[in-house]
Design brief:
Number of domains: 2
Oligomer: single chain
Distance between the termini: 31 Å
Helix content: 10-25%
Radius of gyration: 18 Å
Shape: elongated
Strand content: 25-35%
Largest sheet: 4 strands, mixed
């Protein structure tokens, strides 16, 4: 079993996933657009394949994206942008063995965003920091765990 974050964006999913591909050293596996979807009958009372959500005007926006980082995956979509709400009450947590690499990942994610807690040593880790990237996604980077006393 794996728990995989699924992030929703306000029209900039493709830009965000290209950013994450570079920042996290990952690889985009899928990038499907709304205008590529075949019509499907009986999908929630609509023939758009989206369970009745109004996808008119979504065109080349991203219906589904996936990014692999090692054996982990992050997925995302531009979803139904009319009802978009920024992410609240959760952070995407990244655990990295090497503190130096953790610092590089943190700096990459924080570029153009907001740092809530600068990356640095804590009592539990050689490196830890919290930021919200330029797309509004909140992150925690924890690297180089210290052994418990």
């Amino acid at each position: 079993m794996k728990i995989q974050p699924y992030l929703f964006f306000n029209g900039d999913c493709e830009e965000a996933f290209r950013f994450y591909e570079k920042a996290l050293g990952g690889k985009i596996n899928e990038l499907h657009r709304f205008n590529e979807m075949p019509p499907q009958e009986n999908a929630g009372g609509s023939d758009d394949g989206c369970g009745g959500m109004d996808m008119s005007g979504m065109g080349d926006k991203i219906m589904h994206a996936s990014l692999s980082v090692g054996d982990q995956m992050i997925m995302g979509s531009d979803g139904d942008m009319k009802d978009f709400k920024p992410i609240q009450g959760v952070r995407v947590a990244i655990g990295i063995d090497d503190a130096k690499k953790g610092g590089k990942v943190f700096d990459a994610l924080a570029e153009g965003g907001k740092v809530e807690m600068p990356y640095g040593e804590t009592f539990w880790a050689q490196g830890f920091g919290m930021c919200t990237d330029k797309f509004g996604v909140p992150w925690m980077v924890n690297a180089g765990d210290k052994p418990s006393p």
